[in-house]
Amino acid sequence: MGRPEPATETRAPxxxxxxxxxxxxxxxxxxxxxxxxxxxxxxxxxxxxxxYYHVPNKEELIDGMVDIVFSEIEPxxxxxxxxxxxxxxxxxxxxxxxxxxxxxxxMEGRMKPGPAGIRLRExxxxxxxxxxxxxxxxxxxxxxxxAYIYGFALQETDMxxxxxxxxxxxxxxxxxxxxxxxxxxxxxxxxxxxHVARAGYDYATEFLFGLDLILEGLDGLRG
Amino acid sequence: MGRPEPATETRAPxxxxxxxxxxxxxxxxxxxxxxxxxxxxxxxxxxxxxxYYHVPNKEELIDGMVDIVFSEIEPxxxxxxxxxxxxxxxxxxxxxxxxxxxxxxxMEGRMKPGPAGIRLRExxxxxxxxxxxxxxxxxxxxxxxxAYIYGFALQETDMxxxxxxxxxxxxxxxxxxxxxxxxxxxxxxxxxxxHVARAGYDYATEFLFGLDLILEGLDGLRG
DNA sequence: ACCTGAACACCGTTCAAGT
DNA sequence: ACCTGAACACCGTTCAAGT
Lengths: 223, 223
Fold this sequence. Notes:
The structure is a homodimer. By secondary structure, the first copy, chain A, is mainly alpha-helical. The first copy, chain A, has helices at 16-30, 37-43, 58-71, 82-99, 115-130, 135-159, 164-178, 186-196, 203-219. Chain A folds into three domains: 10-56, Homeodomain-like (Arc Repressor Mutant, subunit A, Orthogonal Bundle), CATH 1.10.10.60; 64-160, CATH 1.10.357.10; 164-199, no CATH class. Chain A is built from nine helices and no strands. At the A-B interface, helix 5, helix 6, helix 7, helix 8 and helix 9 of A face helix 6, helix 7, helix 8, helix 9 and helix 10 of B.
């Protein structure tokens, strides 16, 4: 597992930065359920308890990991019109969340937003206010967009098994389970059988469709 | 904790039903992170290992719990026009998810959908097809709505601390942390300070706003 | 300042066994 | 058919101690 440090070589000294970045990498590779303080320390070539010098506990470790994810999201560029700017940050969010699938359910929930999360929030609110939305409408517009973006990411993450093998296994098993009652679910058969199962199902296009539906709807509500 | 069974009284016999329903109640009360096989068995007055006769493992326990949640969601009523029917099921979903906050992140992800989840899916697809949407548009329309509904529930669950004390603590702490740099976040100050912090912030209204934005947008795209 | 091992109170699950 | 305790391989975290 990992690469065990040769005892002769001195290990890179720990730091909050290094601990967090390694934790993110580990979660990217193996998912967050399998991320333990002990394995993380191991990956760093350190004793399990060394982590606690740099991070108070696992909860705040995850807070820090989430803020790293926030820092990778491109804020709405100032020079673009509001819809294009929002599309850009939406796409960037989706892309980043696909790189860090473990983070999807955790972005909104942290009670302690980090600096990157705060900065992004500020940039988005500013973009909407400058576009002419009232304070009340800015809140609404922000809320719909984020609900959609994070909800879509949740679907996408959850519905795409990690490996092709997983996918085949799941598909086959569902067939087994429901084959005898398929007649009761004509619409499911029509939709799943006819379209979703096609390999070319394109999440990016689907994401854009819903996003533009929302952005166009909002455009009429500016002051 | 709970009510320890008096040794004289014979305990209700276990069953998959009872195990699942007790697990849901426990998760409702204490969150899903604190739900362990051992505590669940304890609550049932049984030994920890008794559960494994009724449920193969924790993963499938949770699958079963999620399907109970699905079973509580009202499907789109057949006799209503499509938008009203969809609004009904959307509200029902939000309400059920507020009763079972632990479930929000788990509804879409389970690789083994249960019967209730399947039935609900079928009903929604049927409603959209009857409304005149093409197969392709049905998929899109379904996807936008669910992304929004589950994304909104995610925000709402995550942003509402369990207790008023939690809320106060978080608010105060955020103030402490960012007071010195508040000048850098004028839009955040304006929006949070001016509106969101007001006690009367109404999630139901906000939910409806975004939902109708989407439904109206979709209405123009029927065949 | 930075790192550590032993110990504690937990987990999920296997297994061989009891009624 | 239904339930069980002991045991195994894990967890996060406290504490007192090492350099």
